[in-house]
Amino acid sequence: MQPNGTSDQNVATKAMHPYAARVFREVSERVPWEVEFLQAVQEVFETITPVLEQTTLYEEESVLERLVEPQRVHAFRVVWHDDAGRVRVNRGWRVQFNNAIGPFKGGLRFHSSVTLSGLKFLGFEQTFKNALTGLPMGGGKGGSDFSPRGASDREIERFCHSFMTSLYRYIGAEVDVPAGDIGVGAREIGYLFGQYKRLTETFSGVLTGKGLNWGGSKLRPEATGFGLVYFAQKMLERRGEELAGKRVSVSGFGNVAWGAVKKATELGAKVVTLSGPDGYIYDPEGVSGEKIDYMLELRSSGMDVVQPYAERYGVEFHAGRRPWEVPVDVALPCAIQNELESADAERLVANGCKYVAEGANMPTTPDAVRILRQGGIVYAPGKASNAGGVGTSGLEMAQNRTNQTWTAERVDTELRRIMTDIHDMAWDAAATCGNPGDYLQGANVAGFLKVADSMVDQGSV
Ligand code: GLU
Asked: CATH top-level class for 72-205?
């Protein structure tokens, strides 16, 4: 799925508190081309009006002006050799967004679509998401426009080593702890870690998503998808429903989708779709058993297509289409930003879908979010519902700091608790604002208060 810009980028300032509207206008004028970043800022600013109406403290302390400015952005070129011996050049970034509540923390994304604007949006979102986990982690994001698609293992190794050579001075277990994201999985984290270790002569918890033999946490690969389903379970429970027996559509087929399918299936739901940039598959029997393991094979093929699933299991493949046209009870967008647009939202509403929980970061456009909510669909934003990945990264950091290795059961129990707490925190914050059940407002308000109050406590830095 390719990210798309959104049409209603700058129109909703009316819904904002005047202070937020002014800061939003200033940012829009300063970086009008950073479309995704502005989209993320707008979404947060539109929902924190009740907080800004209650106190002028944040305005007096210029908290919003500070919140939208990354603490520091590292930009560098990444030079590497391909298998043919040619010198190749990519761009690399690390956006250290906010460290008010802990070291910068967030993934690295390797994908041809990566831009500084995209990473700023992701770092901004990460700041609130990490705050919601209740763990001491600030927000950051990084990556490169390098696409691992079609690259050989050796090329990926050389790329990762070069990337880390440019980055290693600026990260550290107590400074900034990167992890995986799209295009960065266990293999890439291994190469990045190896180079960090070689350059610094230290063995530390500088990255999360590490291998189990060398400091990684059990369940980290599954955590984002598992956490998403635990969150969805809570959403249903609150409304007296259960996940078992529900039809679920999932987009993507990578790490998040895999974990979500695994857990949803285990809990008795039926996942009927998966998707890739090439289209989606519809499996009416449900993606279960060895088909879930096959997702891993599909991913490691490096081809970034889902069609082979249809051929292998004899199910429908819809080229160039998105899975949101399939009637389901629950939709879990797990691919990439802005992959669920207005027309998709209208179809979900028309087909009687009742819940949308985001596994990806900002997969739903602002227009689509409005349509879903007006259509009566219960909607959970990624910064709440996909926080289980980074939450488990936080558990990996805790294990590294104390030289411990927790059992899978312990990690799973902690993950469930984190997701339950985020659900309840978002619920309570929304109720305080007079909008019970509004997870978007609840997550933004709860995350904002934690970060903003920490910034105020620490003075004008
Ligand atoms: N990339 C994941 C996210 O978007 C995980 C980040 C991490 O574990 O640091 O939250």
From this structure: alpha beta
